[in-house]
Structures are given as C-alpha cells and as structure tokens.
Design brief:
124 residues, mainly alpha, Cytochrome Bc1 Complex, Chain D, domain 2, globular, heme, signal, Cyt_c-like_dom
C-alpha cells in the first residue's frame, strides 16, 4: 500500500482529511427568503397528500380542509397561521413531519394567496 509522505497514512487520507477540515470550517448560508413560489413547492411536497393546496376542488383526505378553507377562517392572519405551522405539536398525528422556520414563512406566503375576496385579512 502506498503511503503519504507522513509514512503512516494511506496516500488518499491526507487530501480527504483536508477536505473534511475545510468542510467543517465552512459557514452555513442564510436560509432562503420566504416566497410564495417556494411555498407552492412545499405545499405540493408536504401537504398535497391530504390537503387541496390549489385553486379548487376537495382535499384528498376528507378530514383535511383545503388551503382556502384554512385561510378563510375568522381571525386567521398570516401570524396566526405561522404560529400554528411553527408548532408541530399542534399537528394531527397524520402530519408526521416538521417544517423549518423558513419553510413556514414561505408556506404562509403561498397559503394566504388563497384567501377569498369576501374574506379580507383582519384589520385590513
């Protein structure tokens, strides 16, 4: 077996170790900015199995309200929706996942777009 110039390490170990050290020193970027378009992707990937996440029809799970029904509830503000989504302990057992804070912000930005015209945001 070929060894590195250090004599006791395999030749591949030194470059691998350097890469690991550099990876450990790198900084983690900021989470993406909230956007309704990112919220659409999150809605389809994480919510669409049960909820109607778009413009019409019924949810595939009869116990899951549509996004429009959720955002049209009296008193449902973006802040209230965000607070619910951030606290995964509120979720029904079927919702066995957790959303990261930036995912919540994007999902709220997307969901609030489904508010009907007859149901304006409170205090607007």
């Amino acid at each position: 077996m070929k060894t590195s110039r250090f004599g006791y390490l395999p030749a591949w170990a030194a470059p691998s170790g350097l890469l690991l050290a550099l990876a450990a020193c790198s900084t983690v970027g900021e989470p993406p900015e909230a956007s309704a378009s990112m919220g659409l992707i999150i809605a389809r990937d994480k919510c669409g199995g049960c909820h109607q996440t778009g413009g019409g029809g019924e949810s595939t799970n009869e116990r899951a309200p549509t996004f429009a029904e959720i955002v049209d509830r009296p008193g449902m503000t973006p802040e209230a929706l965000g607070a619910f989504l951030r606290d995964s302990h509120n979720y029904p057992i079927e919702m066995g996942f957790r959303l990261e804070p930036h995912e919540v912000d994007s999902l709220v930005a997307y969901m609030i777009r489904w508010r009907s015209e007859h149901s304006p945001l409170p205090n607007s």
